Amino acid sequence: MTTQVINAPILPASRESQRKRTATNVRRMRRAKIVAVQVAIISALIVCWELASGRLINDIMISAPSRVFPTFWEWVVDGVIFEAAATTFSNAFIGLALGGTAGIVVGVILGQSRWLADIFEPFITAVYTMPKHALIPLFIMWVGIGATLGILTSAVIAFFLIFFNTFFGIREVKKSLINSVRIMGGSSVDVLLRVRLPSALMWVVAGLKLAVPQAIVGVVIAEMLAGDQGLGYLVSKNASSFNAAGTYAALITLLVAGFLIDRIMTAMTKKPLEWKNSGSAM
Predict the structure, then answer these.
(1) Nearest-CA neighbor of 178 among 159, 191, 165?
(2) Model pLDDT for residues 190-201, shown as the tens digit of each residue
(3) Which of 52, 95, 229, 240 is most buried, with most CB under 10 Å away?
């Protein structure tokens, strides 16, 4: 007896599933190629760095990776890195919370009142255009050195970034939405809670993505200029003693930490920003 094999037609659902698997495989292959190229670039840079140190460039200026990475690992084992990072990031996020909260409050108040905005907005803009790091010597006279200096610097930087995003988020609400709430009998509080704040929230998220790394930069600079602990102090301390290996190890720590924080903030703000950019925001 002969058995006849009948090929069943591929159902639309099966085709769609196969198409998704193919697209997923293509994305994975593309990502793998990108990672491979990135690893190759990093490896080539490290090799060139190692060969150049002490040969083409004085090793005091660029210590070799064979000395930098052991120093970095020694700090990891001893806990020096974690202690310094905890100081820097805790000061940055305390300042971010204080400055961000103040920025949201002031942004909401001025965003709702055109009269107050016309009075105060030019003053705020004038201070905003000034490089905030130039204020650190003034902050030293006010609060001295230490954690308070880093917190104050972080708070000032975060305030302006969050303020302007909140301010424009409140002001950019469509008039038709506000009028609709008022026609239905909504009060000014209803307009604020149901229309203005939801619209400004997306702007605040965008400002937060910028404020976090800038707040950390402010703390690091404050620590380098007048700090007694933290990652910035670690950089300054090793550089002042001409310890190139320690200086580069501290810079690598900042590089890795900054990269991880940027990826975390990108993941946290991805959905809200996609919603805003898609036009779904008010």
Answers:
(1) 191
(2) 667 667 777 778
(3) 95
CA 127/CA 147 separation, integer angstroms: 23
Strand ranges inside the chain, DSSP E = none
Which tokens belong to 210?
């910028």
The first and second tokens of residue 111, run together, are 């965003």
pTM (2 decimals)? 0.79
Residue 42 has a CB neighbour count (10 Å cut-off) of: 10
Question: Residue 264 phi/psi, 5° resolution?
Answer: -65, -45
Burial 207-229 (b: 16+ CB within 10 A, else e): bbbebbebbbbbbbbbbbbbbeb
Alpha carbon dihedral 213, 214, 220, 221, in 10-degree steps, equals: 160
What are the pLDDT digits (tens) for 38-77? 999 999 999 999 999 888 888 778 889 999 999 999 999 9
